[in-house]
Every structure is written in structure tokens, then in C-alpha cells.
Amino acid sequence: MQNLHSSHSHGAKAVPPRADESVDHYSEIAPPSAAPTRRWSGMLLGLGAGVLLTLAGTRILGGREAAPPDAATPPPTATQTVTAAAVSPTSVADTLAVNGTVQAVDLLTIAPQASGLQIRQILVREGDAVAVGQAIATLDDATLQADLRQAQAQLSVAQAQVTQRQAAQAQAQATLGEAQQNLERTRALAERGAISQQELTRQQTQVVTAQEAVGLSRAEVTSAEAGVRSQQATLDRLQTELAQTTVRAPAAGVVAERLATVGDVSSTGTPIVTLIENNQLELTAEVPQAQLDRISLGAPVAVASNADSRITLQGTVRSIDPVIDAATRVANVNITLPASDLLKPGMFLRGDITTSSRQGLTVPATALQPQPDGISQVFVLGDGNQVEARTVELGNRIAASGDDVAQVEVLQGLQSGEQVVISGVGFLQDGDVVSVVE
Question: Which of 94, 137, 221, 427 has the fewest Cβ atoms within 10 Å of its own Cβ atom?
């Protein structure tokens, strides 16, 4: 090997080994050309590192490894929890809208029955409920009390006079009896001639006088008894007037207005209060002549107030006035209202008179989602609880009553039995998946 290196240093060309040379001999001359083998090994190592870096970058940038082509797609996740209700057929009423004023069916004016007495107390105020016979006001009864005591004294005197007259009558009756006995004895003696005819005549005169005295005493007793009755009548009148100093309610009801004040002088023509009998109120609404034929007696009426949302009542048509106003061509329709502390005479209310009814599809009013263009849509539950936004055409509205929520008639856009979302509709979009709870 030393000779070979020496000849190369002198410019001699290296002789390639022959094909028939042994491997051991070739190995001895191979080390100078081992660099290409190391270069291929480095290239392979670099390529493997690049692949690993590429995979790592894909994991980092993609956030997760790509799913195998045959992996199942996970189901969509529910975005909101909602409640739903079925589209159902319901009796829908056609109504006629009216407006009117609340009035009392029977408004009683309560005036005192005693005149000329000062009002001492008024015991009720507007809105108070009163019962039959309850005290409304009291009048000053001092004068009547004095007159009553005087009448009682005069009655006692008259009764005493009756007693005296009855005693005098008894005395006259006794005198008459004695005179009649004397006459009988005198007549017997006169028949035997024991006494004169003159004595018999005198005894007869005494009997007649006694009879007249008895008749007079009877008349005096009758007169005295009449005096007693007269005094008793005076006493009864004064007691009645005294009782009338307490003004009482003739019927149960509610005080509508207090018209008098303490200190006023009573008069039979001046009422102290007005009373709504049995607290019965009605809504008097004006209805055009052309609409009267649509209204039937006893028809239900949904009554509400634009000023007080608490007033939601159910009334009935009680009567229709027989006279139509010649100037306005309207007639009054009287609607009976249920008792309510919220109602006051003079209130302005609106009513929807039911004129006919039919079957229609309805949904709760909370299912509606108003749109900027004025239309309404609902969200219908589909497969997998995925909602579909659907435009609907609406009809009549059914007001809430008791435990029943307000309903809306759907003329087009829904089928009976479909499920619509009734809570949280303002947060849904078409295609959302929801979780439905009871």
C-alpha cells in the first residue's frame, strides 16, 4: 500500500481492479471512496426527519389528526333547551269588536224618609259593600226623642182616664141595679096599696136616671179609649220617625257615590248616597245598525281594558235596546259583567262579541316570531329535533282564560299534529338543533 500511495503522488494513474480479483483485495482499496455511501445515509435520515416534521406540523396546524375516511360523522349538538306544543284543532270564534262604558244595571238613590233633621253621621264611603238593612247614615233625633217622651206621658194620662171612666161606668151600673131593685119592691107594695102611686113614680124616675148615667159613663169610657188609641198612634208615628233617623240600605250592593255631607239638613227628595244594587254592572256598547243582526242574546263577550291589563273578563249579551238613534244609526247593546273589584261605573272598556264559531288549527301565541316585514313565523320540530323556520298566515286570536294560554289561529303554513316551539323562539334560527323538555 505504501508503493501505491507513492506512485499516485508522482502522477501515475490508478489501475482499476479486475473483475476476477478477490473481494478482500477490493476492500483494501475501497476506503478512499467511502464518502458516497455516507452521503446516501445522510439523505435518507433527512428525508425521514422531514416526513416527521410534516406530520407534526399538520397535527399542530389542524388541531387534530384527520379522521379516517370510513369514520362515522358525530351527531349535531343541541344549541338550546325549549318546550313544544302540538298544532291542534280548536273551536275558533268569529267576533265583533265593540267599545262601551261601564254602568250599573240598577242604580238606587237612597234618601232619608225624615225631613228637616240634620245629618249627624254618614257611615259608608264610595266602594263599600253593604248588606240589606245596613245603616248608611244617622240623623239628629234629639227633637224626636223629646216628642216621643211627651207622647208616652200623654198616653199614660189617656190610659188613666180610661181607668177612671171605666170605674165611673161601674158605679153607674151599680146605681142602676139598685134603682131597679127598689122599683121592683115599690111596685109590689103599690099593688097591695101599701104605698102611694107617687112613690112608685119616683122610683121609676130613679131607674131611668140611673140608666142614663150608665149610658153616659159608657160613652165616656169609649171616648177615653179613643184618646188612648190616638196617643198610641202618635207614639207609634214618633217611634217610626225615630227609626227613620237611621238611613238603611234597601238592598245589598256597593256604594257608588256619596252625595251628602255631615251637617246637611235631610230631605226626602235629596239622596245621601247612590247604591249599585247587588254590585251588578254592565257594559253599554254602541253597535251600528248594520251589525245588529250578527248579535244574539246570551252570546259570550270577551271584555278587556286598554288602560288596565288586569281586566280580562267574560260577559254575556243581556239585551239590545229596541230604539236606534236616528242621528247616529247605532243601538245600545247591554253586556252583563261579572262582579269584580276592578270595575267602576264610567270606565271605558272594549269587548269582542262572539257571533259564530268554527273549527280551526291553533298554536299558543308564544310560538309566534314576528318579522320586520310584518309577517310571522314559527319553528317546527323536525327529525332529530332540528327546527325549521316556517312562515304562517294567521287568523283570529283567542284570549287567555283561566289556566288556558292565549291561542292564535293558523290559516296556512301548518298541519294538525306538527310540533312547534313555544319557548325561546327569539333565540332560534332555521336549522338549529334543540333539546325538548316538558
Answer: 427
d(CA 59, CA 324): 88
The fold of 106-140+245-277 is OB fold (Dihydrolipoamide Acetyltransferase, E2P) (2.40.50)
Number of residues that this document lists for the chain: 438
In angstroms, the CA 11 to CA 5 distance is: 10
What is the CATH superfamily name and number for domain 85-101+280-436? Answer: Efflux pump adaptor protein, beta barrel domain (2.40.30.170)
| Cell 153616659 -> residue | 216
Residue-wise pLDDT for 75-130, tens only, equals 666 678 889 999 989 888 888 999 999 999 998 999 999 899 999 999 999 889 99
> Starting from the edge strand earliest in sequence, which strands make up the sheet with 253-258, in order?
107-110, 273-277, 253-258, 129-130
The domain limits of the chain are 20-67, 85-101+280-436, 106-140+245-277, 142-243
pLDDT digits (tens, 9 = 90+) for 257-308: 999 999 999 999 899 999 999 889 999 999 999 999 999 999 999 999 999 9
Strand ranges for 259-329 from DSSP E:
273-277, 281-288, 300-304, 312-320
d(CA 99, CA 334): 11
